[in-house]
Design a protein that fits this description.
Blueprint: E1 2-13, E2 16-22, E3 33-34, E4 36-39, H1 46-58, E5 65-70, E6 74-77, E7 84-95, E8 106-112, H2 126-133
Parallel strand pairs: 1-7
Antiparallel strand pairs: 1-2, 1-4, 2-3, 2-8, 5-7, 6-7
């Protein structure tokens, strides 16, 4: 089986969690809601990739986020590809008074409660990734 290592980050403030709607310009999971995510490149540390993706996708600098929880890697089946899985590294960061500017990878964002996430069409197992961090 082929696998791809990715980070999935949730930002939290006021007991709400930040999710993004993937744009039609990305390669995979178009139009689905997700956490801040990205592929881990080479031997890169997952935490470094997490902070990089947060800045790239939201314009929130590292100085405005604080890591509060890391969960063990999770295996998630990939419905778009046969014989493929995602190895997800989950992170939770607190952010205060964020000024959010989305890049081309996402078209919308929301702050949602944990129970609300199932009301959105999400990437596979997003609810389980978030639950692992709570």
């Amino acid at each position: 089986m082929n696998s791809t290592r990715i980070v999935t980050c949730f930002l939290t403030k006021d007991n709400k969690y930040f999710i993004l709607k993937r744009s039609n310009e990305v390669k995979t999971m178009k139009g689905l809601w997700a956490g801040v995510s990205g592929i881990i490149e080479g031997n890169e540390e997952p935490l470094h990739r997490a902070k990089t993706e947060i800045f790239e996708e939201t314009s929130i600098p590292e100085s405005k986020i604080r890591l509060v929880r890391v969960s063990p890697q999770m295996r998630v089946d990939s419905p778009q590809y046969t014989n493929h899985e995602w190895l997800v590294y989950p992170f939770l960061f607190v952010v205060e008074d964020p000024v959010i500017k989305l890049n081309w990878e996402n078209s919308e964002y929301r702050w949602v409660g944990p129970s609300e996430i199932t009301q959105y069409r999400t990437v596979p197992s997003l609810d389980k990734v978030l639950a692992s961090l709570l």
